[in-house]
């Protein structure tokens, strides 16, 4: 099995993209049910726009405040998507501690509810191994 960190949890035969393996996401042009990715921050808007062309369900593992720019929210609405759920996750110890809350953001084509569901990963409040007591 090849691909990124998410692929090992998905069914055998799942399509995947990984730029370092020569499979560029922006060259992917196949309609799929889901796109699940941790897009690079510098290309978040481009990933968002491209994803909305090819999938009805999109999950981005991102620093959640990054999604809430005027351009990104307008793109989501313009393309007929809504934010169905944000699953807040514990900030990985290996990530730079920025103070921005990471989460899995689930966007759905045609979702029109006025507010999304906020949930928390099971280990959200667990202390870090090296946390000061």
Layout of secondary structure:
Layout: E1 32-37, H1 44-54, E2 55-63, H2 70-78, E3 81-88, E4 102-109, E5 117-120
Parallel strand pairs: 1-2, 3-5
Antiparallel strand pairs: 2-4, 3-4
Protein model, in words:
The protein has 133 residues and is an alpha/beta fold. α1 links the parallel β1 (32-37) and β2. 15% of the residues lie in helices and 26% in strands. The mean pLDDT is 88.
Offer a few descriptive terms.
alpha/beta; five-stranded mixed β-sheet; 5 strands; globular; 133 residues
Taking pLDDT < 50 over at least 5 consecutive residues as the criterion, the unreliable ranges are none
- Based on CA inertia axes, which overall geometry fits? globular
> If you average the pLDDT, what whole number results?
88
Coarse structural class: alpha/beta
Q: What's the SSE pattern?
A: EHEHEEE
Strand count: 5
- Biggest sheet: strands side by side, in what order? 1-2-4-3-5
**Gap from first CA to last CA:** 41 Å
In DSSP terms, counting alpha (H) and pi (I) runs of 4 or more, how many helices?
2
Helix content: 10-25%
User: Sheet with the most strands?
Assistant: 5 strands, mixed
What percentage of the residues does DSSP assign to strands (E)?
A: 25-35%
Radius of gyration: 16 Å
In short:
With 133 residues, this protein is an alpha/beta fold. Helices cover 15% and strands 26% of the residues.
């Amino acid at each position: 099995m090849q691909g990124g960190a998410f692929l090992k949890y998905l069914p055998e035969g799942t399509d995947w993209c990984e730029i370092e393996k020569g499979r560029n996401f922006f060259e992917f042009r196949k309609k799929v049910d889901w796109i699940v990715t941790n897009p690079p921050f510098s290309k978040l808007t481009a990933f968002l726009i491209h994803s909305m062309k090819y999938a009805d369900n999109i999950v981005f593992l991102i620093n959640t405040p990054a999604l809430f720019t005027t351009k990104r929210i307008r793109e989501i609405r313009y393309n007929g998507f809504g934010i169905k759920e944000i699953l807040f996750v514990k900030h990985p110890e290996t990530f730079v501690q920025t103070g921005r809350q990471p989460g899995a953001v689930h966007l759905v084509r045609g979702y029109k509810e006025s507010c999304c569901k906020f949930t928390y990963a099971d280990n959200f409040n667990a202390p870090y191994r090296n946390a000061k007591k």
